[in-house]
Design goal:
Layout lengths: L11 H9 L6 H7 L4 H13 L21 H8 L12 E6 L1 H11 L19 E7 L5 E8 L15 E6 L6 H10 L3 E3 H5 L7 H16 L2
Parallel strand pairs: 1-3, 1-4, 4-5
Antiparallel strand pairs: 2-3
């Protein structure tokens, strides 16, 4: 699975592999889908992994449920409380982190049962963007937004934060601009480390647990 953006001048084979690995694939699937010699493909994968462009994930973690069947109705009720007064549409949960972590986090969301991909492709620029949509039955959804951290991005936060149910921080690096923006708008700011400890954003099972715990915390469950 892709872990961070690939270089613009990467070889065409690596560009093709990176495109395919926006969603997790097995080695057998890549060998079937890519028109290249097996040795060339393996060498390209090895080179990409050495540069930190790819991430291995366990086969058992390819697809996971957001919650058990008995807990889904409770979670649905909690999510129904999240919309903020004066804002239309489904509530938003904003995940703030470095861009490379947001990429992996968004890919993990797509491996959660009943999750939908964003309506628009991920932008090339480092701007706030949708990572996916969590569905809890008819007419109950949560849009998960990605917010790249960095002081240069702070002016764009005003378009994303209003109406947000909560902001979830993956990174522990100081972000005083984000702290102030959330405080000013009375948006709960949660830290993944405080909720679940260290979280591997490339593991859909851990991402599902983090999202579930976040929604329970914000919804009052």
């Amino acid at each position: 699975m892709a872990a961070q953006p690939i270089e613009d001048d990467a070889p065409p084979l690596e560009q093709r592999l990176f495109e395919l690995l926006q969603a997790p694939r097995s080695l057998d699937e890549l060998l079937d889908e890519v028109e290249a010699l097996d040795l060339e493909l393996l060498e390209a994968l090895h080179a990409m992994m050495n540069r930190g462009l790819l991430r291995r994930i366990p086969r058992s973690a390819l697809v996971t449920a957001l919650a058990s069947h008995d807990k889904l109705p409770i979670l649905r009720a909690l999510v129904s409380r999240l919309p903020r007064d004066g804002f239309a549409g489904p509530p938003r949960l904003v995940v703030a982190a470095r861009e490379s972590r947001l990429l992996a986090f968004g890919q993990s969301i797509l491996r959660i049962e009943d999750a939908l991909p964003p309506a628009t492709p991920r932008p090339i620029a480092r701007v706030p963007h949708a990572l996916g949509v969590l569905r809890f039955g008819e007419a109950v959804e949560v849009t998960v937004m990605g917010l790249p951290l960095g002081s240069s991005m702070a002016p764009l936060w005003a378009m994303t934060l209003p109406g947000t149910a909560a902001v979830l921080r993956l990174d522990e690096d100081p972000a005083p601009e984000l702290d102030s923006a959330c405080e000013e708008r009375e948006i709960p700011l949660l830290h993944a480390s405080a909720l679940l400890g260290m979280v591997d954003e490339g593991d859909p099972t851990q991402v599902a647990a983090l999202l579930r715990t976040t929604l329970e915390t914000v919804g009052g469950g």
